[in-house]
Design goal:
Number of domains: 1
Shape: globular
Largest sheet: 6 strands, mixed
Radius of gyration: 14 Å
Structural class: alpha/beta
Helix content: 25-40%
Distance between the termini: 25 Å
CATH architecture: 3-Layer(aba) Sandwich
CATH superfamily: Phosphoglycerate mutase-like
Length: about 150
């Protein structure tokens, strides 16, 4: 299974947290990352994002086909995100477009076994893979990419 944790791109400030749109910089960040992803993704993949507009706008830079799941919303637990993605026993590639600090906690949990405060920058993604081996499961960080590197 491939799990891609994609933090939403830069968003405008607003008193209603779920309605914050991307800034023009955020739109550029999302598009650059989506273009990079398109060249590397397998033919079939699933995208899950939160109910927050900034998360959906980021996902929309890649595809119009995404599932909105409240388990990815701001303030969600790392366990809720992992359950929504069906990690590690799901099939194929799942892209979770979400928020800090949750995505950092998800990354630290699956890579180090502890939900620490790791930071994933706005618009950046971490691609983590899991596969079964004769000796058990193997989890590895495939890539961590930030839009300012593209």
């Amino acid at each position: 299974m491939n799990l891609i944790l994609w933090r939403h791109a830069e968003a405008e400030e607003d008193s209603n947290d779920l309605s914050r749109p991307l800034t023009s910089k955020g739109q550029r960040q999302a598009k650059r990352m989506a273009t990079w992803l398109e060249a590397r993704l397998p033919e079939k993949y699933k995208v899950i994002c939160s109910r927050a507009r900034r998360s959906q706008d980021t996902a929309r830079a890649l595809t119009e086909k995404f599932k909105v799941d409240a388990n990815i919303d701001p303030g969600a637990s790392y366990a809720a995100v992992l359950a929504a993605a069906d990690w590690p026993h799901g099939n194929g590639t799942v892209i979770v477009v979400g928020h800090q600090p949750t995505l950092g906690e998800v990354a630290s949990m699956v890579l180090a076994g502890d939900p620490a405060d790791w930071t994933i920058r706005k618009g950046a993604l971490w691609w983590i893979c899991y596969r079964e081996r004769d000796s058990g499961g193997e989890t590895a960080l495939r890539v961590a990419m930030s839009p300012d590197l593209l």
